[in-house]
Amino acid sequence: MKYIDEYRDAEAAEKLRKAINAVTTREWTLMEVCGGQTHAIVKFGIDELLPDEIRLVHGPGCPVCVTPLELIDKAIAIASKPNVVFCSFGDMLRVPGSEKDLLMVKAAGGDIRIVYSPLDAVKIARNNPEKEVVFFAVGFETTAPANAMAVRQAKELGVKNFSILVSHVLVPPAIEAILSSPQCLVQGFLAAGHVCTVMGYEEYAPLAEKYGVPIVVTGFEPVDILQGIYMCVKQLEEGRAEVENQYARSVRKEGNLPAMDLIREVFRIVPRKWRGVGEIPESGLGLTEEYAGFDAEVRFTVSHYTAEEPEECISGLVLQGIKKPNECPAFGTRCTPEHPFGATMVSNEGACAAYYRYRRHSAKKKTVGESAGV
After folding, report:
1. Options 3.40.50.10490, 3.40.50.1000, 3.40.50.11740, 1.10.10.10; which CATH number does 65-170+255-299 get?
2. What is the β-pairing status of strands 162-169 and 278-287?
3. pTM, whole model, 2 decimals?
4. What is the pLDDT of residues 119-168, one digit of tens each?
5. What is the three-state SS of 230-280?
């Protein structure tokens, strides 16, 4: 199928593999930001095609994975209320909170519905005026326009029984948090193509210049990723640190301007806590004053909730590219998709889930620290 098969073409992939080998003369550590890229890398064995000098580490680009524990607890508290219809994408239902998950609430009788669009939740609210309908608004910049549209539509239609529990996070501040950490080993980034389809990539240029790292906006198929790696390594070998766009068939430098205008109308930039990482300044979205009445945290008085991450789960280190999933002592034994410690084992874009599905029977490789001589 066009735009799928051509980006999984074995001959094209082999040419890029040879080009990467030809240009590589030193050791480099690259991070793919997006969880979709992580799954493609592990599924297709892209990392195993690369020369030993190139190490790929996995970033915080899974929105389900970085949703903090306390926000899951807030969702559970709201969904447990008798007059609430709680709407969510399906991958959030099995993310563990402090004591249980949303699926357990549903099993106990909670009215939790899987929807495919936040606009579906607005429709449910219009059809059930006696109920409070809440949508779990999780995601990066990619899903923000649709969630903003749902809130604006609810306001325009006068739907008073609709609200959203917001857990939106932004990619550029997360990249800066990683680069500013003393533990950072990353020398180049493959940026998430879908995020940049919405927001463009002008925000990445100051980061590339400030930290001296190349950032290549990259797609999600094997040929995309191999080309993104080649472009990133070529910059490193030539001593350049620029923003380049591999995913030109989808991404423009300025982004999707109408979508960005809608995001700015409904949302404002706020600090946001990331699961396993901690609070990152200006890394999230919250509702603007004009739309504050649709804030489920305020409506259901759950803003005060706090929770501590389980010590045994290393998902925070995985999300920062410091450790690989198979370096966790619990990986594949005490922590599985059926009984997960953290969201990285649950989400379809989680690194731990990818390793469990495609790599749990393979030999354990050297750690990032060992490879880097740390």
Report:
1. 3.40.50.11740
2. antiparallel
3. 0.90
4. 999 999 999 999 999 999 999 999 999 999 999 999 999 999 999 999 99
5. HHHHHHHHHCCCCEEECCCCCCCCCCCHHHHHHHHHHEEEEEEEECCCEEE
